[in-house]
Amino acid sequence: MIETPYLLFLGDAPDPLAAKVAQGIRDWRPENAVGQYRMPGCKADMKLPDMDLAEAHAAGAKTLVIGVANRGGVISEAWKAVLHTALEQGFDLASGLHNLLQDEADLVATATRHGRQLHDVRVPEVKYPIANGVKRSGKRLLAVGTDCSIGKMYTALCIDREMRNRGMDCSFRATGQTGILITGDGVPLDAVVADFMAGSIEWLTPDNDPDHWDLIEGQGSLFHVSYSGVTMALIHGGQPDALILCHEPTRSHMRGLPGYKLPTLEQLRDTALTLARVANPACQAVGIAINTQAMSDQEALDYCAETEARMGLPTVDPYRHGAGRLVDALGAI
Amino acid sequence: MIETPYLLFLGDAPDPLAAKVAQGIRDWRPENAVGQYRMPGCKADMKLPDMDLAEAHAAGAKTLVIGVANRGGVISEAWKAVLHTALEQGFDLASGLHNLLQDEADLVATATRHGRQLHDVRVPEVKYPIANGVKRSGKRLLAVGTDCSIGKMYTALCIDREMRNRGMDCSFRATGQTGILITGDGVPLDAVVADFMAGSIEWLTPDNDPDHWDLIEGQGSLFHVSYSGVTMALIHGGQPDALILCHEPTRSHMRGLPGYKLPTLEQLRDTALTLARVANPACQAVGIAINTQAMSDQEALDYCAETEARMGLPTVDPYRHGAGRLVDALGAI
Description:
The structure is a homodimer. By secondary structure, chain A is an alpha/beta fold. The first copy, chain A, has helices at 20-28, 53-58, 77-88, 105-114, 152-165, 177-183, 197-204, 228-238, 265-279, 297-311, 318-321, 324-331; strands spanning 6-11, 33-38, 63-66, 92-95, 118-120, 139-145, 170-173, 213-216, 242-247, 284-290, 315-316. In chain A, helix 3 runs parallel beside helix 4. The mean pLDDT of chain A is 96. The interface between A and B is large, with 40 and 40 residues.
């Protein structure tokens, strides 16, 4: 559990895209960010108050979150000057970088000296159980995709926002590093040891009130040969009541796998439901989320309408059109 | 890679069942075992020559394999006296115990001093790649089951033996600790980090001669919610040409999961083939292996005959009846 609220560290971001993690926090949990910290030359701007460490501390920030990808894969000396000072001033640090904070001996020494935490969200901090398959109370949704990196996290976050706006009881459950930094906790599933994958998702989505929805961030795809085992563990560990099928219509092949075609939405529905019903016989496919970012407004609407007619399920781009119709369908379960 | 041949350490085995690993080596790779080492009170006997360390060393043994489950989950002082002496006399040690050799500082010190290896086969020794899904040459078989612990390893080993007897070119590919100790190498898949599971199986079963068969030991089951992700990674990383369906007819529920019924062989076939064809569109289900250990001779024959008539695939208990008909079917691919 990462302490909130955050000061978002944008460093010397070479362009706005490098600050994707900070943007995710800004978009989805603005209440978690009291301000941004920018170094000379920073090309990213979250439109949050620029603060130095003392100002952010006074504003209540508990954790400095590295919201930017680093250059050359290393934590630079220029960054380190800020990170050391932050630890000395009472901040914890959180990062999703490949270059782990805990592998930097000088940062570990400073954190230890000042009693602060270093959170590397790529590394599990919990000893997860082996899944026991026992039915849990409360409701669970899982986003599954025809491919990786197709909008599953954004779909779950859009549904989370819509449910919150309606006053429904829900929790976005992060299963990847960006999601964990956005919300402050979750399971870095791709780094969990095989035997404990499904158990980690049971741990993440425990018994809850009957009307509470866990909105579980998907990972990988049953049809992506590199990562399908991770998806399988989400389907069985999450024991979802509802699946949202996610698709991006313009992909010519599976991400990183030339020669592998995407499955159809029908194939995804049939395969995912068959497997999901092992853990939860009542599981249903309730809606379809299309990632239309490569389409015009009219193309997006047409594609969703055609898909809805073919599949018989509410079909929207939740980021572009809102998740209202998906939440309507979930509310009927 | 564990150096062979072995001296099998049976310790003070309280009963024959405790020496399951040694029995597996004795049954499936007798050429890997020059002898056995028994301590006072040992109740197990592999019918191998009893040897002390010096005799085994003279007979060519390279590795002392702990072939017995330890009492109380710890490596006892009585065992350690033998293990230290073995390291001093030039043996490597290999173990599948939960209590890792590498966690015993005194054993590590002795091994380091004498330049010997400690192999804990529960711990991956290789940095595996992420799977790339590229089609590999050679043929691959994977055993899949309606449940865990249903005879998948024995099925693959029976097929391996039959193929060797026929002079066919094949390799048993171990994916669990017992299999690794039997053959001297493999992937401890249940201990691999999620992102690298499928890649570890690609690594284990590389390009090979067109007529070579990799006989891949299965793990878990697509229908076992605790471990299905591991099975999924085997199906996609192994890109099998052939599946053997494994079943045990007398189970009342999935292993360790009261309330979860076993799937039918038809459900297993359909689900496993659908997923396997993502990685290898030519994959076929070629035969069925029934674990009939809880049945009389006649019951076993009747059950196999009924299953064969229903499923249209050669059906045997390969351990009881031999794997000849399964190998016939594989030879036709």
